[in-house]
Amino acid sequence: MIDLPDYYFRIRENGAMVFRVDTENRQRRIEMDQIAVVNIRNGEVKPHGDRTLSATDIATIRGWMEERQKVLSWRDLDDIHRAIDHLNLTAQWAQSKATDDQLENVTDALLLAMHDLRSVLVRKKADRLTKARQDNGEAG
């Protein structure tokens, strides 16, 4: 029999359903018993039904939540780097391949999205520079 983990996390939109995995039964079947529901965004762990979670359950769930948040954070940043690549590819497409009709179809939406993004980035950059000056004791 393959060694399976003691817990299984079924990913959901804001977290996971947590199952305890059992292979030590008479039929040698894999049984998964739901023990909790986890909300990654607010850190909430709700025991399933009238169940009481053990210290091991809680520690395993908290460890999974920490790792999951790292994965999601990494994915967010990876998505942004992919967006940068897509912007570059879009610029190349607009310059070299796009027809007038295609450009007419996307230009306004792209310009508004880029204007919005630029406004946010400029404001956030100014906030960081102001904070850095304040942290260094300089007058703003």
Mind explaining what this structure looks like?
The protein has 140 residues and is α+β, with helices and mostly antiparallel strands. 56% of the residues lie in helices and 19% in strands. The protein has two helices and four strands, in the order ββββαα. A four-stranded antiparallel β-sheet has the order 1-2-3-4, with helices on one face. The model has no long low-confidence stretch (mean pLDDT 94).
Give the arrangement of secondary structure elements.
Layout: E1 7-12, E2 15-22, E3 31-39, E4 44-47, H1 55-96, H2 100-135
Antiparallel strand pairs: 1-2, 2-3, 3-4
Quantity of strands, as a count: 4
Rounded to an integer in angstroms, the radius of gyration calculated over CA atoms is: 24 Å
Please write the string of helix (H) and strand (E) elements.
Answer: EEEEHH
Question: What is the number of helices?
Answer: 2
N→C terminal distance: 66 Å
Oligomeric state of the chains present here: single chain
Percentage of residues assigned to helices = 55-70%
Unreliable segments of 5+ consecutive residues: none
* Largest beta-sheet characterization: 4 strands, antiparallel
What fraction of the residues are assigned to beta strands by DSSP? Answer: 15-25%
Average residue pLDDT: 94
Key terms:
about 140 residues, alpha+beta, 4 strands, about 55% helix
In short:
With 140 residues, the protein is α+β, with helices and mostly antiparallel strands. Helix content is 56%, strand content 19%.
